[in-house]
Amino acid sequence: MLQEIIDEIYFQLDEQNIKSILNFYIDLIRLNLIRAKQAGYSKVRLNRYDDLYVKAEEKIFDVIEWKDVILKIYQKLSDKKKQELIRLLQRGLNQGQDFYEQYYKQCINDLIRVEFDCIFSEKRKQKDFVKIFGQIIKDKYFNDICAQIMRDKIIYYNRFDAGEIIGQLSGKNCTYIFSYIVLYYSIYRFRFEWEYININVLRILWKQHSDMQDDAEEVIEKIRNSNIGHRFEDKMYFKFMEYINASADGELFNMVYNDKILDVFYVWVIKTSVINQDDLIYSIYQDNLDMDIQIAIINELAKHDELMECESIHTWVQYMRYNSFAMQNSFPRKLNITLRSLLLTNINVVIVVNYVHENRYFYDDVIGAYLLVKLHELSDKTQKQKQIKEIVKNAFIASNMDIDEYINMIEKECYMCRCEINYVQKEKMKEYLLQTF
């Protein structure tokens, strides 16, 4: 009957009706829980999975449908009344009765989850959540609940900047989520190598993190109990902590690569754009990073548009471009050939031409786009070679674009890689393309 009234089957509810129903509901729950205790029930059933851990002789009091009632009441309330409801439920935690505590905790947990779902689907604002739940999530238990939900949301909704909610988490929980993200992507690299890396979220978590050493035991325990616990080893956390505290130089990234415990690319991102972005400039000139690792980083970086906007990453790319890749006298064997990876490395165009000559039937079409960008660096004689013209033409044909679209696409990639082309270059590129037909 109460469910039907809340569903407005009999009449529409106004704020006074809802308040009366809520008061009645709270009294009814209190009386039912008292009677359940007196009747010898040993546990309340809060969700459908509780039966999996019940002994045959235990009497279970089912409150699942009662929880549904409070969710429906909550959804009909204004934010101010929602805040009052949370305070009312919070008072129920201090009644000295374990059934009360179990029930009210689960109700608040469920309401937090509902709000998180709405926030990450952008139906609600973070500030609304903070206004309603800000007081109660100062409590360690609910702060931990928020951290657990937030952990999964950040992974799934990786483009969402949840800074206002993260601001409500304890330092220990920020350390936990920060560590979890890096460990998660290192462990499941084979599944998620294309995932968006949200630098802003990582920076907020790092800004609020606690002492990783002091909180190691509790953070490790949280990770063990998480959905990556079956693949997690304690040494991963301690190695991560070691990497965090080390200078962001080639020696560190060589060590990460050789240890093969965490993914070198994610550690590199964390060090260059989250933790050490301000002092990177002082360590980069002392760099002795192995060339294979540089190429591995470039291969991954080329997949992440969002990282291309980071100034500290651009600083690293610029240094490697002119002090490492410019010194190459042959085409990097392990480089994934994409227009972006070629632009990031700024490989000498003569080396690319030689590579094409040596691999006449095994080159990638994007090389034609790169040769077009670097046209001004080729001699007139090389520009007029039939093979070079064919490579440039075939790359254009494979793009399935008209000339303006193709040049604009190339210009956009050049802009992303901070090697812009000017108007004169663009016109010469168009002219050369037309001449290839």
Helix content: 55-70%
What does the largest sheet look like?
A: 2 strands, parallel
Mass-distribution shape: elongated
Number of helices: 25
The secondary-structure element order is HHEEHHHHHHHHHHHHHHHHHHHHHHH
Radius of gyration: 30 Å
Number of strands: 2
Which regions are unreliable across 5 or more consecutive residues at pLDDT < 50? none
Strand percentage lies at under 5%
Distance between the termini: 79 Å
Name the average pLDDT.
86
Q: Walk across the major sheet and give the strand order.
A: 1-2
Set down the secondary structure blueprint:
Layout: H1 2-6, H2 15-38, E1 43-45, E2 60-62, H3 64-75, H4 79-92, H5 98-120, H6 126-133, H7 140-156, H8 163-166, H9 171-187, H10 189-192, H11 199-207, H12 216-224, H13 234-245, H14 250-259, H15 264-275, H16 280-284, H17 291-301, H18 311-323, H19 339-345, H20 349-358, H21 366-373, H22 380-383, H23 386-399, H24 403-416, H25 423-435
Parallel strand pairs: 1-2
